[in-house]
Amino acid sequence: MTFEDAIAALGEEFGVELTAEDGVASFEVSSDGGDFEPVNFTLTYEPENEMLLVSADAGDVDLESGDEPLLKMLEANHMYSGTEGASFCLDGSRAKLERLISLEAFWREGGKSIMMSLFRSVQAWRKENKI
Amino acid sequence: MTYEELIEETGAAIGIEGFAPDDDGVCMLISDIGEIVIMDCKGPKEMVLLNAAVTDVPPNAGAALLAALESNKGFKDTNGATLSVDPETHRFELSRYAFLEELDPDKFIEMVEKFATTLVAVREKLESAGDKLAEGELPDFGEYIRV
């Protein structure tokens, strides 16, 4: 199973064509009824340890608005209680929800179910923080 | 290999005879860097979770919260672990998990060693970040000097 194979298989699970280039695949996931804002995903393959970094963009955080949103992200991380096994982080002012998983486990667990757990956690966090 | 076998064999490999989890699947490694709690998480996939207290969230938390969230980015500064805040104790914690089926004693020892190294590094980072003042913020002088 190569990274490219895993991305193509993931596309089949979603019913769309997905491709990877230079170890990176990016795409948007939206809900069927359009009830939720779409979430942009980036999957980056790390060949040196055969790990996959799955990153979901949760939105922009106003860093001038106080500690509350930062605290909520870190509290959601506590024992992975609000993240279904993923971790909130900051990339500049962008909130991201990320999971590091072996390519083999991503394939074995079902990539779509992993992506959808991140999608749910991002939507819950956006709703709580009105993003 | 069961969780109990993993813990027992790991204990034997690092010289702790009789190392075993309690009835809730919890055991602890205690050293001068603190306590590393080891937990068995049953579920669709059985997982082994490591957890440790890092340091208290300081009163002026902004810089430390930012440092924690930036450290989590890409798991590079945390060696695969995650920094969080316990909403009850209001302290930073470090956690990491792995699927039981992917572990053997050697891999688990390596995981614990990396976790311990990361714990020391992030504690130093967060405690020094907590000492920094937010931009434009005045330090708490405690008393003033009349000139």
Characterize the main sheet of chain B.
5 strands, antiparallel
Strand content of chain A: 25-35%
CATH topology of chain A: Yope Regulator, Chain: A
What is the share of helical residues of chain B? Answer: 25-40%
Short recap of the structure:
With 131 residues, chain A is of the alpha+beta class.
Supply the key terms.
heterodimer, A: 131 residues, Yope Regulator, Chain: A, five-stranded antiparallel sheet, 5 strands, B: alpha+beta, 3 helices
Question: How would you describe what is shown here?
Answer:
The complex is a heterodimer of chains A (131) and B (147). Chain A is an alpha+beta fold and 131 residues long. Chain A has one domain: Yope Regulator, Chain: A (2-Layer Sandwich), CATH 3.30.1460.10. In chain A, 37% of the residues lie in helices and 29% in strands. Chain A has a 5-stranded antiparallel β-sheet. In chain A, β4 and β5 form a beta hairpin. The longest helix of chain A has 19 residues. Chain A is globular, with a radius of gyration of 15 Å. The mean pLDDT of chain A is 90. Chain B has 147 residues and is an alpha+beta fold. Chain B has one domain: Yope Regulator, Chain: A, CATH 3.30.1460. Chain B contains 3 helices and 5 strands, in the order αβββαββα. Chain B has a 5-stranded antiparallel β-sheet. In chain B, β2 and β3 form a beta hairpin. In chain B, α1 packs across α3. Chains A and B meet through α2, β4 and β5 of A and α2, β4 and β5 of B.
